[in-house]
Amino acid sequence: MNKLLILLFLFSAGSFTGWVIELFFRRYLDPVESKKKKWVNPGFFVGPYLPIYGFGLIVLFLLGHIRIPSLSVTHPILEKLLIFIIMASCMTLIEFITGMIFINHMHLQLWDYSPYWGNIKGVICPLFSLFWYALAAFYYLVLHPKVLGMLYWLSKNLAFSFFIGFFYGIFLLDIIYSFNLLFKIKKLADEYQIVVKYNAYMSKLIDIREEAKERSYFFFATRLSALSPKEVFERYRDNFSVKNFVMTPIKKVADKVRRDQQ
User: Fold this and answer.
1) Exposed, middle or buried: residue 61 (CB in 10 Å: 0-12, 13-18, 19+)?
2) What is the reported pTM?
3) CA distances (Å), origin 179, targets 17, 186, 260
4) Which of 10, 47, 72, 218, CA to CA, is 20 to 30 A from 110?
């Protein structure tokens, strides 16, 4: 079967499955988020997908084929444990690279592990690396044979690839919409020189809308419901800002000129 089709299928399947995992994990198992007793859409896309899991499934699929000849015969259990460690390390690395790219270039922190022991910049921590290890073991022992079976079935039923194409059509529209929103948040983050906790920011917007509904009578909305994103930053940025970031003198001057022109 075409290798590109395999990668597209793995990415779409992993993105959707990861979204479902994160949805239930945050609602019932996350030590911090579960206390809020709310369903939270994980990630920043509107639709049900988390691309980091899509890339993760591709990595797990590729690593699922590796063997360690020196251990496979004499110590097969040790070989599997070592493969699980390699898988978990790769997943943690993907998580770290993704998180740092968004923090450094978009000034957005998409997830926050700062409450957990041993975290690095709030992006990775030992607890979630342990979760990655458990997920890698589950994939290798349970899911990998099933994924191979699904790919074999797909090779015999290529008409199903229509649905994969449909997924990416919707996904492309979501990318355009969601990144447009992210760039608006980044613009405000640049103006206030902060790194924004994305989930905390969106939670605050939801709280504002819910509070506005409670204070509304009939069809008359309160002033609270009409807050602009800029006003939300002015009033509540301490609720969702991580830290101030250092701007270079050149960038400071450029931003001042841009604001003066506006």
Assistant:
1) buried
2) 0.84
3) 22, 10, 26
4) 10
Kindly state the tokens that stand for 117.
């022991």
| Cβ pair 26, 202 in contact under 8 A | no
Strand partners, 241: 196
What is the spatial distance between Cα 121 and Cα 154, in angstroms, rounded to a whole number? Answer: 41
CA distance to 54, 143, 222, per residue, from 152 (Å): 19, 14, 57
Transcribe 4-66 into DSSP letters.
Answer: HHHHHHHHHHHHHHHHHHHHHIIIII-TTGGGG------SS-SSS--HHHHHHHHHHHHHTT-
User: What angle, 0 to 180 degrees and rounded to 10, lies between the N-to-C axes of helices 249-261 and 161-192?
Assistant: 90
Amino acid in position 194: I
Residue 197: strand pairing partners: 109
Residue 237 belongs to what H/E stretch? helix 229-240
Contacts of 259 (CB under 8 A, 6+ apart): 191
Q: 126 is written with which tokens? A: 């030992």
The pLDDT confidence band at residue 246, using thresholds 50, 70 and 90, is: very low
Percentage above 90 pLDDT, the chain:
54
| Predicted confidence (pLDDT) per residue in 71-88, tens digit | 877 888 999 999 999 999
pLDDT (mean) for 25-52 = 85
CA–CA dist 196, 202 (Å, integer) = 10
Tokens representing residue 81 in the block? 């444990």
Cα 124 from Cα 129, distance rounded (Å): 7
Cβ-contact 24, 64 below 8 angstroms: no
